[in-house]
# Entry
Amino acid sequence: LQELDLPESIDALYEERGQVPLALPMMQGNVFIDVACACFDNQASMVMIMSHPCSMRKGAVLRERLIVALVTSSEVAVASKVVKEFHWKRNVNVMPLPDLVPGGGDYVVDFREMATISSNLLLLERRIAALSETGVLLLQQRHICSATRLYVDLSALHDLNRHITTEMELQRDWVEAASGSSADAAKHVEAIRGFQDWLDQDGRRDKLLAPYHHAGIRREARSEIRRRFGTRENEADLGRG
Amino acid sequence: MTQTESNRFRISDSGTASEIVEEYQTPRSQTTLYVASLGWLRSTMAAVSDGVRELHHVALRDDLEFRTSEKARKGVRSLLSELADGRGLGWNDIASLVGVSLSAVRKWRQGGDATPDSRTELARLAAFMDILAEWSIEDPASWMELTFPLPSGYRIRPVDLYKGRQLNALLDIATMRRTLEEVLSDVDPLWQERRSQYDVVDGPDGDKIIMRRQG
# Structure
């Protein structure tokens, strides 16, 4: 019996919950609330981005339409604490999202309820959670299994996603340094463009495909971030003496 | 000169075909003595080698502990900066190598407190990277992310051994004191059973795709 994988802990599943920083790149596994579209009967719904990171953007900009899946609590009644592990290991049609909402609230993302919606409906201020790297791998494994009945081990998916994880991590660092906690969307878009332009230079994007180069690109990116924007963290360090 | 010595096989209780092995004379040539001497020497060397290896591992542990306590004098943010900016480790890797969540690392970056244990683990990681660098690993962070050169389908990386706290085993591999297979069999006897059926290869559009392994 081939069972699906499960996370080591609930914390390992999420990169952010609650107030998700604007600088965190939009990514597969992000959860949004109050998304109203005809495909979900125009009711304010909770959805998760399902589009693969490689097909979410045209350059630095999100595509006009993205694939999302409905996030619901309807199956949670069944997924009581006792049978939760059953859902992780055996239920290929959903992915459990335990403690998705701070203060309690178990949900599942349902792969049988998917739709293509305008990316304009996915407002950053309505983003309430983002899966971690591990969470995204678990999501992909379950989604593949649900759509094709094929089990793919996490190590293969990890290999496939390594360059994306590194790129997203560096983009977040870059945008945070450039925009800080500013809520100005234009500033964020400008920072994202700045990072993507930098990545396009000197063959860096190609180098990202080889994990051996990742450490070097990280050092280079962080040095460039310090050169362009200074380091807020060090300033805070100095401030504390 | 050939010496002979009387020899008789016992017929074991469990019963073998030993009843058909008749009494015979063991040949005692120079070669036979040479074989016996070399055998003894080999066993002795192996015992000495095992003993020295154990001593070496104890010394390595002590050295790492000393270096860790020295590193731990630094603040959490300085350690994070050393690992991320200086060495080039990713935040995800730092979190998993230290054994905390990514959000904990983000909290530390923003000035949050780390537990003494977490601070020690950060210091240990920084000290370990120093040791790798001193032992001719040119770019320790890159090396930690490499997939070991094993047949396709095995995706074991130095970070996996580090997460399993097999630091001496990892140093044995880094310094090529033992073969990769030997070390892996030592620390994880079932490692060969965990072979992925999939390879990651270049896809038709230039991006990577997953493909079932051939053969």
Summary: The first helix of chain A runs from residue 84 to 90. DSSP finds seven helices and nine strands in chain A. The two ends of chain A are 58 Å apart (CA to CA). Confidence is low (pLDDT under 50) at residues 234-241 of chain A.
